[in-house]
Amino acid sequence: MALLPSLFSPRRAVERREPRLSLPATRTKADSFASGSYPSWLSAGLGALPSATGLPVTPFTAMQAAAVFSCVNRISEDLAKIPLQVQEILPNGRGALVTTTHPLAQLLASPNRWMTAYQFWFYVTVCLCMRGNSYVAIVRGQNGQPRSLIPIMPDRVSVLMSPRGWIFYHISHPLVGEGIRLHQDDMIHLRGFTLDGYMGISPIMACPEAIGLAIAAQRHGATLFRNGTQIQGVLKTSKSLSKETAARIASSWRNAYGGVDNTGKTAVLEEGMEYERIGMTADEAQFLEVREKEDIDICGMFGVPPHKIGRGDKVTISNFENASQEYIDNALIPKARQAEEQIHSRLVFSEEKARLRVRFNFDELLRGDMQSRVTAGVAAVNSGLISANEWRAREGMNPYPRGDEYRVPLNTGAASTAPAVDDPARITAPDPAAQT
């Protein structure tokens, strides 16, 4: 019987059954659980830590930093648009075929009632980037067949580890249950950087100062333009001013010279008054350099090259391809690999693990680059890796007659047909004309 009762009527009969693990009916003192929640000063779930700037840094306030929002949005969009395929491995390991009729493929194409596959992986990736953990509850039927995938907000999950080594998840969700405990086999848990192996740490919690400084720099820039001047100072006079007169002068100064629209106006002071600057200009404070430096640091936190969010000028035509590959290797593939392994472990039945695999098809990233796709396709067809109709099918084009034939380069041959080194046929008689 499944650990989680069926919440929806079955769509079709499934004959395969998998034995399920159940929670112990009674718990002794030895069976007590160790919570995976961190103390308040090390809140991995929320990442809520104060910064030296005085600004609170949480996943919500961190999104005010343009670099944080851009990095998280870029990674989530790019990973969500990559198709997740279920492949059946051919006998003797001679390749694999993509299947769309397997129940797992249908589940991944429509994870739940309200999310498409793109929306599902976008949200899962956002949680992983912002919170360091991403949780997906597996709703199973009575026979253990997975029927829907429900992403759970990290705030609603507590990770528990038993002394016997099992991990349990205490969750609350309207479609799963309030205050129920799921076994690790019924939860897809993607982890970021971790210190204990079963609970990820939010990058926002790990680097609050960098994000806090980025937010402070943005607010400083907004205030700078709101005031309309780069200098800050005082109006002073040798005369004694009443409280009402001082307030009137300050208000008159703000109305006349404050704001972006009043930038550059010539100041006219009242009789006997002097202006003395006591602040720093934006250049003196290196405002622009600070903003760029913090944006680059945030890009490093998420493994995103600065050019992906419009920062930096070190990417040229000659190294653009290498920079893009670096982004795929550092920011996308680690998350995709972890998701593939979790799905294969939690959603594939034991008797199918040897013949099924789940893979993100990164060729989708070339979808907008027609020239690269055609160049790669021509090389693959001419070398006999794929047929012309296989390439046309990938591009959504109709097949043509005899397009299923594989081409073989005529200037190459199989290694087995090459003569041996001591083969007499390889020894040719000397050319008499050459000797004369």
TrEMBL record:
Pfam families: Phage_portal. Residues 408-436 are annotated as: Disordered. NCBIfam families: portal_HK97. This is Phage portal protein. It comes from Novacetimonas maltaceti.
